[in-house]
Amino acid sequence: MSAQLVATHREGAEVYTGEDLCRQKSIELLEELHFPKGLLPLDDFVEVGYNRGTGFVWLTQKKSKEHTFKKIGKKVSYATEVTAFVEDRRMKKLTGVKSKELLIWVAISDIYIDDPSSGKISFANATTGIARTFPVSAFELEVAEKK
Predict the structure, then answer these.
(1) 62-104: per-residue pLDDT in tens?
(2) What dihedral angle (degrees, nearest 10) is formed by the CA atoms of 91, 94, 97, 103?
(3) Pfam families of this UniProt entry (predicted)?
(4) Domain extents in the chain
(5) Which residues of 93-109 are buried (b: 16+ CB within 10 A; e: fewer)?
(6) Strand runs (DSSP E) across the chain, as ranges?
(7) What pLDDT score was predicted for residue 143?
């Protein structure tokens, strides 16, 4: 389904390939939308696309990834393809992102910052109505630890 959606929005989109360029463009996109730069900690990028006319974004990575946001202890899973319709401080109809809630994975369909001065960011599942709010600071870029 998401591959079909990408194909629909590809015409007229800015499309980038290559690990370094995609990483840079994904961070620039998050900055432009006023989201924290560490919100989408993807690896091994294949492609990043943004159709400004429709607000559709896609990010493709070689394999799915689980990431734990250490400041809040939340585990999040990112599929090989993450898509969303974006506007300032809002991602809607998000696909490819799930959060671990107790023992189950819950799909996240919306991410938004209603009041920038609050320092809070919200994540919601439109189907179930489940929503959680966290400090924006929990999603800043984490410095990679040396092993």
Answers:
(1) 999 999 999 999 999 999 999 999 999 999 999 999 999 888 8
(2) 100
(3) DUF538
(4) 1-138
(5) ebbbbbbeeeeeebbbb
(6) 14-17, 45-51, 56-61, 65-69, 74-87, 90-101, 104-107, 110-112, 120-124, 131-135
(7) 66
How many Å separate Cα 89 from the centre of its chain?
12
Residues constituting the chain: 147
Q: Average pLDDT of 17-26?
A: 96
What architecture is the 1-138 domain classified under in CATH? Roll (2.30)
What are the Cα distances from residue 74, in Å, to 98, 116, 129?
11, 22, 19
Structure tokens at 112: 């938004």
